[in-house]
């Protein structure tokens, strides 16, 4: 049982900090890489002060297990970040809410009503339709001999599927919302000095507060319109059962779970949860497809092998269906390997300790920010041998490592009480799009670029997309 130590409080080892800024200057442009280097010197549980925030950086599978499993309850909360407060109605959604009764209930509610296998399957034909249009438009570009901005096209189809699932088919307000959510996603990922030096917050040195305010007000206006429309439809007896309709129908009902007292969700919760699903689901899925395809373009041997598998399992006379996905064993190894090297959330979503604790004889203060460096964990040579930096999907042949947070060397969806609740939906989306791109087309890099020259630079934020869009020329290869 975990008990607080008050006698000798020995913080984990870490670099000395400077006055006021602490170790902020050590982060650089790609903090996951800088902190991975520092962890080699100070260890896999490292302490540093970032501005005034006590921060623990966790960099090995064994250490991650201590924080995400053994002592998960102590580290299951989230830090209150300034931008997030604005963009989540004061943390009324899921992803940034503190750990407690509300969050537990709302996660259960969403698991049951939105993310169940039955619910996800009920959108299969919608996904099939969206993917069909996507492949058709790429086919036309291939016929015209055009180069394609794959990142943009993939973003469009994922957005299309997500918006249809969340709101149904009505498009009008969606157009505004897509742009606004794009802005919110990028704002949420911006490094905000006020999150580390709160006394600077009121000066709004980066002009972020104004942008947070403007974005949140504009989003709220659109969401209000959408809710009014859905409420009216429900009154008129039109029943679509998309995510918004489901959430609205739950608003008035009690969701009294057996073991816990009633906690009703209100209109603000509905807006915040829907926003979380859009911001969390779209960005992470498209980043995963982008990195996986980039690795395939860089490794023609692996690309060929995936295409062979698709030819054997699906054939060349039809396109991939969702029921094929579980049979694409090698492609799923490719996806694991891409998520190992390019985790969408390099630090997961930062957690916060709810009380003082002692882990491996290290004192971890209350309200410390916990950064689980999944990027470093995915490249830890002790876990992955000395070819850890190499893209080599065959490493998964002889093991049962899965993506569900049981194996702490591979945790791109996190683990424990805050693990991604959208994992099943995310995986279906990513596998389906990746399979279509590789099955329907051969891809050639522009300007005779050699595969090994493909730029793999990262852009750090709350999520970590490629720094550059993926551009390539498709040739259609199916016989239909
Ligand atoms: C390939 C796609 C995806 C990846 C890689 C991904 C990754 C993650 C990660 C790393 C976390 C943080 C986990 C932690 O702190 O331990 C997370 C949380 C979350 N994800 Fe996902 N995700 C994906 C798709 C989705 C989808 C499709 C949805 C919704 C439709 C979704 C909704 C959420 C939510 C609501 C949370 C917050 C959970 C909480 O704080 O309790 N994600 N995701």
TrEMBL record:
Regions annotated as coiled coil: none
Keyword Transmembrane: no
Matching PROSITE patterns: CYTOCHROME_P450
Source taxon at top rank: Eukaryota
InterPro entries per record: Cyt_P450, Cyt_P450_CS, Cyt_P450_E_grp-I, Cyt_P450_sf
Cofactor: heme
Keyword set includes Disulfide bond: no
Keyword set, alphabetical order: Heme, Iron, Membrane, Metal-binding, Monooxygenase, Oxidoreductase, Signal
Subcellular location: Membrane
Pfam assignment, any one: p450
Family statement drawn from the similarity comment of this UniProt entry: Belongs to the cytochrome P450 family.
Protein name as it appears in the record: Cytochrome P450 CYP736A12
Phylogenetic classification of the source organism: Eukaryota, Viridiplantae, Streptophyta, Embryophyta, Tracheophyta
